[in-house]
Amino acid sequence: MTKRTLLPLLIALLLPALALADDWPEILGAGRRGEWKETGILRAFPAAGPVVRWRTPVGAGYAGPAVAGGKVFVADYQAREGGGSERVLCLDEQTGKVLWTYENSAAIYNKFSYNNGPRAVPTVDGERVYVTGAAGDVYALKVADGALLWKVNLPGQFAAKMPTWGFAASPLVAGNILIVPCGGEGNARLLGLNKLTGEEVWRALPSTGDLGYGSPILVQAGGVAQLISWVGGEIASLNPLTGQTYWQQPFVGMTPAATPNTDGQRILVSDFYKGSCLLKLATDKPAEELVWKGKGENEVNTLGLHALMTTPLLAGDYLYGVCSYGQLRCLDAKTGERVWESIEATREKKRWANAFLVRNGDVYFLNNDRGELIIADLQPTGYREIARAQLIKPTSGGAGDRELGKVNWALPAYANRHVFLRNDEEIIRVSLEQ
């Protein structure tokens, strides 16, 4: 074989491996579907556990990290006597070194429950990163150096009512529009802001009840891009560029916290009290059809799936998610009926016990609120655990009577064959490379 023929062969062999490394630029990964598409990921842990590449101190917060362009973005809160500061940190992905810090000492953290840190995962869009703080500040920062490009305050500028648990939804980029759940007056349930300037482009839907805590998503269906939002007692579809309403499906959730999930053809939402709801999207126009809706409001004797923070994932004819008291459940996606449940992933049948699900090829990675990472095979036939390792210490309080006394409720990020996790003390990068 000549050098001339060898070079193209080497390039052809290398390109697939290079293409399959991927960033995690927003909540639940690119597209917000809870899918990790990289290959070369381990299916068993070393005897000593996965290798921790670095640990970097951070302050308190529930906001999971985002990873893009060789950088890691995470928000925290530094409490001080008489006040504190909400921060956004940018770290070097390879070393964990803090590259820059943006600090907002004006954020007021005494007006909502669980007030020890921000909740929303940052959203990275090219040269900019967008962050919603727990007190309602929305920041646009320069990725290169953390310079503030613009900031809006939702309660101050749009008369947004403070949600009981603080502002938690991650902003969403659609073209030149930044979509922000607001809950403001004058039909400002949702805002479309110019992502370059922060100026209002559109506002949509009246604000009724609590804003909720789940993040909006985008789906391409019915020949158009649709913004899907579950706020104010209904699932709504809008034109993300104009705010025009396409359709609305009533579904009252007491605490909408889980982000909607989609496979491009269906929309799934789940609520702690009301259960789940599945919609089928039309193919010829922006419209929807109700497939099924959960029954019953008893948080203990639940019939289907009553998720709180965990976004359930659609998987063909079935779906998987964590119910109100830590039960990992499989439901028949055609009917909403329960197929099986297991308490193995969370270990405790306790209120709000939780594990975040991410699909990678033929398996699922689950981060439970005890700080454990689990690799599992989820099938209609049941739960099969492949591997489990303790990765990070649970440090957050307020979870009631839990075995460890503390929990970890921050979403993980999976990027470039690593998982990134944070608690109230540190953020870590852990290798999952084969």
Would you write up a description of this structure?
The protein is mostly beta strands. The chain is 5% helix and 43% strand. It has helices at 3-19, 154-158; strands spanning 52-57, 66-68, 71-80, 83-92, 98-104, 123-125, 128-132, 137-142, 148-153, 172-174, 177-184, 188-194, 200-204, 217-221, 224-231, 234-238, 245-250, 261-262, 266-271, 275-281, 288-293, 313-315, 318-322, 328-332, 338-342, 355-360, 363-368, 372-379, 382-390, 413-415, 418-422, 426-431. A hairpin with a 5-residue loop joins strand 24 (328-332) and strand 25 (338-342).
SSE order and pairing:
Elements: H1 3-19, E1 52-57, E2 66-68, E3 71-80, E4 83-92, E5 98-104, E6 123-125, E7 128-132, E8 137-142, E9 148-153, H2 154-158, E10 172-174, E11 177-184, E12 188-194, E13 200-204, E14 217-221, E15 224-231, E16 234-238, E17 245-250, E18 261-262, E19 266-271, E20 275-281, E21 288-293, E22 313-315, E23 318-322, E24 328-332, E25 338-342, E26 355-360, E27 363-368, E28 372-379, E29 382-390, E30 413-415, E31 418-422, E32 426-431
Antiparallel strand pairs: 1-32, 2-3, 3-4, 4-5, 6-7, 7-8, 8-9, 10-11, 11-12, 12-13, 14-15, 15-16, 16-17, 18-19, 19-20, 20-21, 22-23, 23-24, 24-25, 26-27, 27-28, 28-29, 30-31, 31-32
Descriptive key words:
about 425 residues; mainly beta; four-stranded antiparallel sheet; 2 helices
Average pLDDT? 93
Q: Biggest sheet, strands in spatial order?
A: 1-32-31-30
What is the alpha-carbon Rg in Å? 21 Å
Helix content: under 10%
User: What is the SS-derived class?
Assistant: mainly beta
How many β strands by DSSP?
32
Q: Per DSSP, what share of the residues sits in E-state strands of 2 or more residues?
A: 35-45%
Low-confidence stretches: 1-19
> What is the end-to-end distance?
31 Å
| Count of discrete alpha- or pi-helical segments spanning 4 or more residues | 2
